[in-house]
Amino acid sequence: MSLKQILQPSQHYLEIAKQASITLKEPRKQLLILDLNGTLVSRVKGGGSMFVRPFSDQFFDYIFDHFTVMVWSSAQPHSVNFMCRMFGSHQSKLALIWDRTSFGLSIEEYSRKTATIKDLSKVWQRLEEFDATNTILLDDSRSKTVLQPFNVIHPTEFIHGSSSFRSSGECELVQIIDYLKVLRYQSNVANYIMNHPFKSIFNHQLNSFKVLHFIKSEKDGHEVDFNYVKPANQHVRF
């Protein structure tokens, strides 16, 4: 039996999610929690470099202007530190950076590929001004978010070498910006997401192949256009 089958949202959480959301005249203060690998980043095997989703600069400018932003990743601290380089000057604005040490795992579980659950109540204990009505988690994994399923935006998993990305590109972050523009004015994001979940448009007119490529040994990332790059390119490790 999987953790998803065992763990269920609490009755208290479900009652909050059922409370009808209304559209406000002014946006609410909201918390946006970011997963990293698969959501914003596609790491190269071995961890020496990473590719960041198309339109990341536009996305980061928007979210750091309009949300309180934190990171919560199941990756180990050194990997999270590397991936957070993609935020550039925005990195100092992160309210919290949580990594694998934030899941309460045993020594054995920490070292293994143990299934992890992101229980947002832990965040709400730390950041008391936020709760189920004003918290949004961006995470490609459904299995990690079973306790508060209606506070989550699920983008498609970003894999830089996938056939779908290499053939069509994507603009997932642009679509998420549009969705966040609506959520900012909701009195209860859990209720809104429950009734109007995020849905990706795969063949979007804005689809792009342009990503940022970061290498651990180099300070700054550089742009790579996958519409022109072939796997044999010696400057890009796939």
Approximately how much beta-strand content do the residues carry?
5-15%
Order of helices and strands: HHEEEHEHEHHEEHHHEE
Specify the overall morphology. Answer: globular
Q: Return the structural class.
A: alpha/beta
CATH superfamily: HAD superfamily/HAD-like
- Extract low-pLDDT stretches: 232-238
- Overall CATH class: Alpha Beta
Instruction: Report the CATH architecture.
Output: 3-Layer(aba) Sandwich
Gap between N and C termini, in Å? Answer: 35 Å
Largest beta-sheet characterization: 5 strands, parallel
Mean pLDDT: 92
Question: Quick one: how many beta strands?
Answer: 9
Helical amount = 25-40%
The figure for the number of domains is: 1
Rg, nearest Å: 18 Å
Membrane topology: Single-pass membrane protein
Function: Essential component of the TIM23 complex, a complex that mediates the translocation of transit peptide-containing proteins across the mitochondrial inner membrane.
InterPro entries: FCP1_dom, HAD-like_sf, HAD_sf, TIM50
Keywords: Mitochondrion, Protein transport, Transit peptide, Translocation, Transport
